[in-house]
Amino acid sequence: MVSLWCLIVTELYLFHSIEGQANGDVRLVDTHQTRGGGGGGRLEIFINNEWGTVCKDQFGIREGNVVCNQLGYISAVNVGIVKRLGYEYGNESQSIHLDDVQCTHGMRHILSCNYISGSGDCDHFGDVAVICNTTGYYSVGEYDGMVRLRGGSIQSEGLVEVYCNGEWGTVCDDQFGPNEADTVCRQLGYTSSLYGRINGLIGSESQSIWFDDVVCPLESSCLNDCKTCPTTEYHDCTHKEDVTIRCTYDTSVQLYGDNKTCRNIGVGSGGLSGGIIAGIVIAVSLLLCCCLATLFVILLTISVMRRRREREETKENEEHTKSREETPLEETIIKSTEVLTPHGARTLPTHNYDVPIFKEEEGPVYETIPNEGGGANYYYRDTVLYDKQDTPGVIYIQPPTVTTPSVSEKPFPAMPPLKKE
Q1: 1.50.10.20, 2.40.10.330, 3.10.250.10, 3.40.50.10260: CATH of 147-272
Q2: Residue pLDDT, tens place only, 77-101
Q3: Domain boundary assignment for the chain
Q4: Strand 209-211 relative to strand 167-171: parallel, antiparallel, unpaired?
Q5: Which of 207, 315, 318, 391 has CB 3.0 to 4.6 Å from 203, enough for a Cys bridge?
Q6: CA–CA gap between residue 230 and residue 164 (Å, rounded)
Q7: 164: buried, middle or exposed (CB in 10 Å: 19+, 13-18, 0-12)?
Q8: Is the pTM of this model over 0.90?
Q9: Which H or E run includes 9?
């Protein structure tokens, strides 16, 4: 019984709220009409169950654009003090709800902007008026997944329509609940929704039903976070199941700098949009090409360096081989100017010595050749023998065992021991 009573109270509150205004609703008031015609007038905003005015301090064309977008227009044409634009001041009994309003580009709701609550230092002589461009906000700049509310008695309520494939269509209520309604309202710049059916609001029979079985993540702020536009209709719904909602704005939650837009967002249960997929494919292709080009350059550099090293090694081997072929071992020994002795390397005198003559049938032959010191060097084959006068620069090398040559009548003199330096 208690549960039934709570349900009845909830339903009464919900549908009573549907009939009223929502926090953050705006209107432009002139002498005879509000939103119905000219798109201009004294700016009023609904906060805490009453309409109040907005002070002109800091309020410029950017803030006017936010108001006009909220009303469904494309932009603001002019803003200023009400009298200067030809409108009437607010009533003395009216509250001044906002002062020093400052918005940034892309904001979708005036309560998302920075502001001071209350009148501040203003009176009604400072009430601001706004004139909007009535071309229509929803006639330009549409994108897949864009949403709007249509047909309501106020701007914060209506039939939910979504833009897909170049036309506006509706959303089926299968699995659509408060969380999904909050998502739509956040996309429109509000903080939350009052979810409930508004009688008499349905799409036309010629309209497509673009979304069905919509399920959104918690705290999502774009309908494209939940589902993306299909290429063709795919549902089991009729327009009697079209979703209608009413949005509201919680003034205790001031969303400073909340200028997120849902254009080009395509991640959801429906997968990635075609534009995002194409972008990803292009980016991955470019990255792959860069990686392959870098790898090719590295491999080419390694190959060139290896070939160069092989050519240098081949050239060195050829030069070494050629040098050995051009200089026989015997010639190297005979022409060398240095001889390794037990006392170290010594330099031979630079004389043009005749090469000793050897005759096998006569045995070794030696001859005496004078040197620079006046003495004589005794040669046995190519070995220098003892020099009697110890001439500097002459190498003393122990010769092999020598027999008396047949050409001499005297025996070969005894070889004294090597002289140490």
Answers
A1: 3.10.250.10
A2: 999 999 898 888 888 889 999 999 9
A3: 16-139, 147-272, 335-421
A4: parallel
A5: 207
A6: 8
A7: buried
A8: no
A9: helix 2-19
